[in-house]
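Before the break, one more example. Copy the sequence into your notebook; we will annotate it together after we see the structure.
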Amino acid sequence: MPTQLEQLKQFTRVVADTGDFVSMKQFAPQDATTNPSLILKAAAMPDYAYLVDQALKDAGASASLGQIIDRLLVLFGLEILKIVPGRVSTEVDARLSFDREGTVKKAHEIIGLYSAAGIPRERILIKIASTWEGIKAAEQLEREGIHCNLTLLFSFAQAVACADAKIQLISPFVGRILDWHKKSTGKDFTAVEDPGVRSVAAIYNYYKKFGHRTEVMGASFRNKGEILELAGCDLLTIAPPLLAELAASQDAVVRKLSPAAAAADLQPKVSFDEKAFRFALNEDAMATEKTAEGIRLFSADIVKLEQLILKKRG
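Here is what the structure looks like once it is written out:
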């Protein structure tokens, strides 16, 4: 009997949510995602100190901290692309989350570094927070042939705006939605009831019903049950401990999401201009709080990464 991980891979593209190369090699995912927190954790490990040293050397003595970090992110990406056959997501500085022009500029710089290393655009996803400014920046980048992964996505309004902007991929955060509802209500949720699972399923069904080509990649899982309830989603990005749980079980995996089932979904087609988007997000306390919190946390980890580099630079 194949493992649950092997079964899941039959109808969902499995992505490794880690900056650790050893874990990637162990679980053989198609793609990999990184973020400032994962890169900070990896960069602080002795095994990956050589990449920090290489980033400092390549950037040169006169380089800014931002340029060094860009090189470090790309060096991690280049190593990841030696392991996975598909794509790697590299994140724009979260402090640019409300800066459309700054986000576009930073994306160009990251793509330029990958291009100089001989990596085609098709293997890179530029990861951007799902603010209005981030979505509009990604829309511009997509028109240029630079594909994007819209992260920190917690609401239906964010998902619809991304689809209308023809973004390549979105990463709705299942576990963080669950965290908020558990704290807000004081109750536990089964995997079927899980509000994060229900949110991603609703987005997937809407996209498939109305023919949106934006890929849905569930992210930020708290338990294996959430993953299994989203079996059939376009992609799922999964941390190594949960990949290990899936690889250790031979229980049957049942496909829960499919384009055929989505055709019967009852959601009407909607769209959001900037004012409607901001109001819808404002009315969703969970999405407002979790988007803001995510930006703060990723921004704080970029600052810690800068401090690590300064210490190494001497």
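Residues 48 and 75 are 11 Å apart (CA to CA). The first strand starts at residue 13 and ends at 17. Try to locate both features in your own notes.
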